[in-house]
């Protein structure tokens, strides 16, 4: 480094969200189109010199509130019905959230990470959505703030390791990837969402199109694996 140059700290982490059987063809109960096709992209990312590589698993108990089958007709149609959930500590704080087919139940094959994902490169796997009372798309925490519920501990892990930049990939772009990236940015990490490393449940303008705008308006940059941000990670080797 030449004298007088500015060196901004760059300690990047990679977050690999929910690369699990139930989110992928051919057998997933909530299969995202093309979900399996992003594994080679993610495995390439896992080989780069990130300071930390962390995966998450959606990991629900069988009685989870997000499962349509745990609700009564007619408001129990997967992918379409919604349910209003209250903060367990404050009935006045509520969130309305979509109901899904049963997925990623603890101890079932659908909850397993894809076998072709290079899990040997992971520093840690975080399980989320384990509280049957609430939906938790984000790898960081539930949406409830008044009062906040206990988070996953991810922010502390990132901070303890001095992480400055968080790169997010995985499934699904319009749900768990999106909300993880938003919380990462809110916690002060420079946050990048890897475009080729994700797929959406609903790729339409009403789905991923809108989430994309929200991400960009809240400071998350959507980047290519061939872009300068990933090149900077590669250059940490040099
Ligand atoms: C997810 C729907 C329900 C996700 C998790 O990983 O994006 N989507 N649970
Ligand atoms: Zn889920």
From TrEMBL:
<comment type="pathway">
    <text>Cofactor biosynthesis; nicotinate biosynthesis; nicotinate from nicotinamide: step 1/1.</text>
</comment>
<dbReference type="InterPro" id="IPR036380">
    <property type="entry name" value="Isochorismatase-like_sf"/>
</dbReference>
<dbReference type="GO" id="GO:0046872">
    <property type="term" value="F:metal ion binding"/>
</dbReference>
<feature type="domain" description="Isochorismatase-like">
    <location>
        <begin position="13"/>
        <end position="205"/>
    </location>
</feature>
<dbReference type="GO" id="GO:0008936">
    <property type="term" value="F:nicotinamidase activity"/>
</dbReference>
<dbReference type="InterPro" id="IPR000868">
    <property type="entry name" value="Isochorismatase-like_dom"/>
</dbReference>
<keyword id="KW-0378">Hydrolase</keyword>
<keyword id="KW-0479">Metal-binding</keyword>
<dbReference type="InterPro" id="IPR052347">
    <property type="entry name" value="Isochorismatase_Nicotinamidase"/>
</dbReference>
<dbReference type="Pfam" id="PF00857">
    <property type="entry name" value="Isochorismatase"/>
</dbReference>
<dbReference type="GO" id="GO:0019363">
    <property type="term" value="P:pyridine nucleotide biosynthetic process"/>
</dbReference>
<protein>
    <recommendedName>
        <fullName>nicotinamidase</fullName>
        <ecNumber>3.5.1.19</ecNumber>
    </recommendedName>
</protein>
<keyword id="KW-0662">Pyridine nucleotide biosynthesis</keyword>
<comment type="similarity">
    <text>Belongs to the isochorismatase family.</text>
</comment>
